[in-house]
Amino acid sequence: MILDNKRPFKQKKTIYKTDSFVYFFFRISIRMTFFLLMVLASLFLFYFVGNYQGFLDSNQRLILNCIAIVSVAEFVFSICSFVLNIISYYIVSRRIKKVILYCVIYLFTFFLSAGTFLFCRGVLLLANGL
User: Fold this and answer.
1) Fewest CB atoms less than 10 Å from the CB: which of 25, 72, 79, 101?
2) How far is residue 105's CA from residue 86's CA, in Å, rounded to a whole number?
């Protein structure tokens, strides 16, 4: 597994294999982050198409509520993925270019989901009336 005291120290850095738990959680966090980002983008596109097509107000509010829920989930997964990326850097892998690339991607999705949530809640607040 991850901690095996019988191996020398130099071999402990190379245990980032496909059967380890760190690799599993790293791959799940990447896939969930990108999946939620694509769902968020498709819902946002659906909202703008609905504005153009003239959807009902109740449908637009439903779409905005769905966008807000997905953006909160994206926000949580991007934070968890960022932390997991930093932990895997210190424990397992010392590849700085890969870590920086993933950290930039996670920070981008973090700020994008926060901005989308604020936009949706602002539109819903204005639609309901101050």
Assistant:
1) 101
2) 13
Residue 26 vs residues 30, 54, 93, 97: alpha-carbon distances, Å: 6, 42, 12, 16
Q: How confident is the model over 87-118, as pLDDT tens digits?
A: 877 776 666 777 888 888 899 999 999 999 99
Among 125, 84, 123, CA closest to 105: 84
Residue 93, helix vs strand vs coil: coil
Cα radius of gyration rounded to whole Å, the chain: 20
Q: Is 4 exposed, middle or buried (0-12, 13-18, 19+ CB in 10 A)?
A: exposed
**Cβ(106)–Cβ(85) below 8 Å:** yes
Q: Spell out the alpha helix ranges (H) of the chain.
A: 9-12, 21-53, 57-91, 96-128
pLDDT tens readout for residues 36-68: 999 999 999 999 998 888 888 888 899 999 999
Residues 6+ apart with CB under 8 A from 77: 29, 32, 33, 36
Q: Which two tokens stand for residue 28?
A: 């799940």
